[in-house]
TrEMBL record:
InterPro entries: DNA_bd_Ku70/Ku80, SPOC-like_C_dom_sf, vWFA_dom_sf. Pfam families: Ku. One of its GO terms (cellular component) is Ku70:Ku80 complex. Keywords: ATP-binding, DNA damage, DNA recombination, DNA repair, DNA-binding, Helicase, Hydrolase, Nucleotide-binding, Nucleus. Gene3D superfamilies: 2.40.290.10, von Willebrand factor, type A domain (3.40.50.410). The lineage of its organism: Eukaryota, Metazoa, Ecdysozoa, Arthropoda, Hexapoda. This is Ku domain-containing protein. One of its GO terms (molecular function) is helicase activity. PANTHER family: KU AUTOANTIGEN DNA HELICASE, X-RAY REPAIR CROSS-COMPLEMENTING PROTEIN 5. SUPFAM superfamilies: SPOC domain-like, vWA-like. One of its GO terms (biological process) is DNA recombination. Residues 232-423 form the Ku domain. It is found in: Nucleus.
Amino acid sequence: MPPAAKRDVGVVFFDLYSKENLLGSLLKFVGWETVNTKDEHRLFLVNSQETSNAKNLPNVELVPQTLQQLGVKGVQNCVQQAEQTEEDMFDLYALDLHNVLSLGVYHLREFLDVPGVITKQLILFSNLANFSPMEEELFEKLVKKIRDYDISLYIVGPQVRFLEPVYATEYFFIEKYAENIVLEKPTAGLEQAKKLVVEVSGVIADATAGLHLLLTCRQTAGSQPWKVPLTIGSNIEIPVRTSKVYRRDVHISVKKEKITDGPPVEEEFTLASDVSVKVDVQETVRGLSIHNKFVEVRNDNEIFQMATEPTFDVICFTYEDNVPVPYMIGEEGFVVLPNETSSASQRQFFNALVDCLSEQHKYAIVSRVYIRNTQPKFFVLIPDADQVPKRFMMVEVCTGDGVRHPVQFRRPDKPKAEVDKEMRDFLKDMDATNPEGTKKVALEPTMMMAWRDEKVLDLILEEECGVGD
């Protein structure tokens, strides 16, 4: 059976009171999702006069079709034709943020054990003007559910300003995001929403930046974290998440077409001593001739199967000179960080291990079984104590027959660098994360969708809805 198709699933809540400012962002998101036909996103209209949802929350209407089925024009019609609650009854219809987000968690829970799901997205398009804050006990329960179910939370619409450009150091890890958020018009509901996204590593931003972060802060196929704990000996186990940060893609190549003339050739079995004597295939026995003895090899594959479970074990520690670059054969790079479930003591131990190996110029050699019943592969963990948070970089190393010749490794002498001050200042000024630079932007380029993709989305909106930027 082939592996399950990789896809994202999500629940989208759209606040009808924010229709004027956020409908364009919603339609762009829908335009993006209609291209990814394997994804599945359900749409709820908030502050609607209709009530239809699994929890019977008042003024929350479930649209029967998914975003992918509706398309851009269908979503536009649903939002524009929906009857919202009266503006003068604003306070009466104040919605509880906990109830709305819990409804989304309830629907995403069904995808917990579904194979192929990469990112479970909980998305709220709203300026949160009429959302009341939740009680502290309910807040803690909601945070725990979002963490336990590995749900990604996005709140798009509130007026949020970033003190520094938002950038990421690896997939789905936004650097210093929490202390970077400034609410332009803080309210009790907005303050709690900010606290919530900080607790669950979510995203909160205005319509423009929020759309970019919604499309970039997600795990792509093959980059979702591998959450098997790192074990050292029989007593130490550290919850970690291993994420792929580099992959060498296979280039396009020309494949020679196989040309066959005439009907296929039928195989015939004969005696080795007399080729004129034919043997029925049912009477043959598979085997090997070793030292003039025949060794039977059974027709099944049981002898080649392995009974293993996913493991991530440290085999030894060695000086970095013993693992030169030519031994690092892997075409993929990984980063190993403490998992969200790590306790304070486990994080402290992980950081101490990184510091200790870095100070002693040592690496860790690990054995990794990625999925059950497969052979282990061996990797080197390279400590990186200069980054925040501290981490290991990981790459596969060759073993056994892969090591053909010992490598005499000698550290290269550092060349004398001639500093070009003008060029150095120019490059520093081009760095969006440089606090001394003159180029001030809200998002670092890697946190934004490609300008070609954005142009295509504008063309889709203009073609189907008659609107565009």
